[in-house]
Amino acid sequence: MSMLFFYFLTFAALGLSFWAQFKVKNNFEKYSKVEASSMKTGAETARYILDRNGLYDVPVEPVRGTLTDHYDPTQRVVRLSEPVYYGHSISAISVASHEVGHALQHQESYGALVLRHKIFPVVNFASGVAPLLFLGGILLSSLNLIGLGIILFSAAVFFQLVTLPVEFNASSRAKDIIVSEGIIRSSEERGVNKVLNAAALTYVAAALVSLFELLRFVMIFLNGRND
């Protein structure tokens, strides 16, 4: 396949990434205006699910910003953005339960999550060094530097691929729990799906961008060897 084709794939993936970010923001804002029938806040939802699963020692804390929600596995704390922490909308409950889904994964040592945590230090280093090696390899016409960059960047791509089942599983857990516990009614499931599916799409797009970028550099390396 030609380099032009890989450039096309990369730009297509970038377009998907921008569209996914737009969908996340749009769906979050849309369903932030729709109150959940249970009237639970995101914080109350998170606390309820954690306690139901015996995670009494995992705190739920507010954090500044919008869509800054995350689960911190090192400190074992669920951090929710203020609109989610204090809000009692479909969006707030959806996002809060998703982050708690990661805490439940941590509790049972979910395989993909454990693997992601173990390789994170390596990936953090590799993702910072790889672009420099690619740049140096191209400027100096050094296939060795490009090859080393490919090896390191492959670790970053692998990390993003491992992230996909982690995120999808957390969303699946979230939807099952909030429906079975009556926090969300069946008539409200469509909104939950809209919010969580849009968020999941951002991870898919990011993985595709990285994968196509890796393939592009592999093509540069192979073409250089042929020359």
TrEMBL record:
InterPro entries given in the database record: Zn_peptidase_2
Protein name: Peptidase
Transmembrane annotation, as ranges: 119-140, 145-166, 200-222
UniProt entry keywords in alphabetical sequence: Membrane, Transmembrane, Transmembrane helix
Pfam families in the cross-refs: Zn_peptidase_2 (PF04298)
Superkingdom of origin organism: Bacteria
